[in-house]
Amino acid sequence: MKKKLSIKDIAEQLNVSKTTVSFVLNGKASENGVSQAMQRKVLSYIEKVGYRPNKMAQGLRTGKSKTIGMMVEDISDTFFSTIARKFEEILTTKGYKIIYGSTENNTDVTKELIRVFRNHQVDGYIIAPPPGIEEDIKALIEDGVPVIIFDRPLTELDVDSVLVDNYRGAYKATQHLLANGYKNIVMVTLLSEQTQMRERERGYRQCVEEAGGKPAILKIRYHEKKEKAIADIEQYLKNNRKTDAVFFATNYLAENGLEAIANCKLAIADRIGVVVFDDSNWFRLFKPSITAISQPIEAICTEVTNLLMERLEQKKEIAPKAIVLPTNMIIRNSSVPVKKAGRT
C-alpha cells in the first residue's frame, strides 16, 4: 500500500522546514514571513501529489479544527436549508467548514448530535434549540466553546442569540388582513411549546382582539402526516364557512393548507385570503402569488457569524448578546382588499 505523505516528507522533498510547510497549510504563511513564491511552491507541490492533511491530528496540534457544527430542526426545510447554505458561504470566506445535523426538535437527538460534534472537535456551534437542551448548552459554554442560538430563544440561559421579532411579524400579518377587509381570520399553527410559535400566536391574538374580534386557532401536531394535516384543515374550513382568511404560522403548514383550500374549491383572493409566516421561492410563482412574512436570512447569518467570530477570537470576557431582527412583509396577490376581489 502506498505510504501516505506527511508534512516531514513534503519538507524534505522541497528542501524547506516543516514549520514553513505547516504555516502554508494552516493559512498562516504571510503573517509569519513566508514569501509568496515559497507559498506557491508548497501549494503547487501538495496539489501535484494530492496531499490531504489529517484534520484530526491538525486539530490536536493547533487546538482548532476550523469546523463549525450547526443543528436545526430539519435541514430539508426551506428556511433552514437556505440559512445553512448562506452560513456555508460566509464561513468559507473565514476559513471554516460547517457540518449539519437535524434535531427533529427532539432533545435526545440533539444531545447525541452534540456528542458527535464534540468528538469531531468542532470549534463552535450554531443551534436552533429544541426544548430541554439548556443544560447541555450550558456545559458547552462553561467549557469555553462558543455557542450561538438562533430562530428560538432559551430564556433561562445566558447565551448569545439572534432572533426575529415573531410577535410583531404575526401582528403585522393579521393587521394587513384586517385592513384589507377580512373579518374571520383563522390562524393555522403547530401544537407546540416552541417560543417562536407562541410568539406568533400571541401577535395574531393581540391584533384580532384589539380589532374587537375573536381569535380562531387550528393547531396541527408537529410531525403530523401530510394527508392528516390536509384533512384537518379541510374539515375546519368546511365546518367554518364564514372563514374568509387564513394565516399560516409556517411555510410547510401553508403547503398543506393550500392543498386543503383547493380541495374545498375556495378561490384564493376571490373567496379566501392567505398570508404565511416565512416566505418561500415558490410563493411568488403560485397563482395567485402568496403574501408572506419574510425572515431576514442575510441579516440573521451575518449577525450569527459576527457573534461566532467574536467568541472564537475573544481575548477577554464578553457579555452574551441578544439580537432581535425585524421581519418584512411581502405583499402579493393572495391578500388583496376584499372590495378589489369583488366581495363586500
Task: Describe it.
Residues 5-62 form the HTH lacI-type domain. This is Substrate-binding domain-containing protein. The chain has three domains: 7-53, Orthogonal Bundle (434 Repressor (Amino-terminal Domain)), CATH 1.10.260.40; 65-164 and 298-321, Response regulator (Rossmann fold); 166-295, Response regulator (Rossmann fold, 3-Layer(aba) Sandwich). The protein contains twelve helices and twelve strands. The chain has a six-stranded parallel beta sheet, sandwiched between helices. The radius of gyration is 25 Å and the shape is elongated. It has helices at 7-14, 18-25, 36-49, 55-62, 78-93, 107-119, 134-142, 166-179, 195-210, 226-239, 251-263, 297-313; strands at 67-72, 97-102, 124-127, 147-150, 160-164, 185-191, 216-221, 245-248, 273-277, 291-294, 322-325, 328-330. The longest helix is centred in the C-terminal third of the chain and has 17 residues, at 297-313.
Summarize it.
The chain is of the alpha/beta class. It has helices at residues 7-14, 18-25, 36-49, 55-62, 78-93, 107-119, 134-142, 166-179, 195-210, 226-239, 251-263, 297-313, and strands at 67-72, 97-102, 124-127, 147-150, 160-164, 185-191, 216-221, 245-248, 273-277, 291-294, 322-325, 328-330. It is built from twelve helices and twelve strands.
Properties at a glance:
12 helices; Rossmann fold; 6-stranded mixed beta sheet; 434 Repressor (Amino-terminal Domain); 12 strands; 6-stranded parallel beta sheet; 3 domains; 344 residues; alpha/beta; elongated
